[in-house]
Amino acid sequence: GDSVTQMEGPVTLSEEAFLTINCTYTATGYPSLFWYVQYPGEGLQLLLKATKADDKGSNKGFEATYRKETTSFHLEKGSVQVSDSAVYFCALTHNTNAGKSTFGDGTTLTVKP
Amino acid sequence: DAGVTQSPTHLIKTRGQHVTLRCSPISGHKSVSWYQQVLGQGPQFIFQYYEKEERGRGNFPDRFSARQFPNYSSELNVNALLLGDSALYLCASSLDAFVVIYEQYFGPGTRLTVT
């Protein structure tokens, strides 16, 4: 079956540091890939997505590139802020069923001033 | 526009009891999915409903059931509650069940505690 593996956390960075959160996946076919963010006490918010190989998703300074050859979708940001502190989830969805996503276990990011 | 709403926000139940969780999708969205998020883990898919029919079911026991109403709102029912059912239950809605570019929008969740 499908699976998503994220780098283990928690990750603690200083403000303005570079962020990378690794995500690899196992799936048949060509799923779409997503990064979601969850702030304390809230539901998930879509951060960015990519629907085919070599696509780059980007939003709010975050980027991730769909790498089919390495089955990866690593999240990056050049300069993190305290407000980026949250839990980040990598997920995949097959185009045949848009309402069923497989999630990784999440990576907790804490950014210190 | 209102986002996905869920009720109740928090719930405490005793082992063996039954619980009903409710979800109202974004207006115009016909697909509703339910996920269970245990503390420290990612959401796990439970059910998806589209146009009032079950479109998908995750690896959960028959104690879990759901339905979707004509107005596209949905209920998740869990019978014979176990301690392990304690989790955040998330509802997500999307315009369509088949087109992945129509992203899922998540509600804030219902926190269920089973004692």
Question: Alpha-carbon distance between the termini of chain B?
Answer: 37 Å
- Tell me about the biggest sheet of chain A? 6 strands, mixed
Q: Averaging pLDDT over every residue of chain B, what do you get?
A: 93
Which spans of chain A of ≥5 residues are poorly predicted at pLDDT below 50? Answer: none
Question: Any overview of this molecule?
Answer:
Chain A has 113 residues and is an all-beta fold. In chain A, 0% of the residues lie in helices and 50% in strands. Chain A is built from no helices and twelve strands. Chain A has strands spanning 3-6, 11-14, 19-21, 23-26, 32-38, 44-50, 56-59, 62-65, 75-77, 86-93, 101-103, 107-112. Chain A is globular and about 45 Å long. The mean pLDDT of chain A is 93. With 115 residues, chain B is mostly beta strands. Helix content of chain B is 0%, strand content 50%. Chain B contains no helices and eleven strands. Chain B has strands at residues 5-7, 10-13, 19-24, 31-37, 44-50, 53-57, 64-68, 74-78, 87-94, 105-106, 110-114. In chain B, the strands form two sheets. In chain B, strands 2, 4, 5, 6, 9, 10 and 11 form a seven-stranded mixed β-sheet that branches. In chain B, strands 1-3-8-7 form a four-stranded antiparallel β-sheet, with no helix packed on it. The mean pLDDT of chain B is 93. The A-B interface holds A 4, 32, 34, 36, 41-46, 49, 51, 89, 91, 93-106 and B 4, 31-33, 35, 40-45, 48, 50, 55-56, 58, 90, 92, 94, 96-109.
Quickly describe the structure.
The complex is a heterodimer of chains A (113) and B (115). Chain A has 113 residues and is mostly beta strands. Chain A contains no helices and twelve strands.
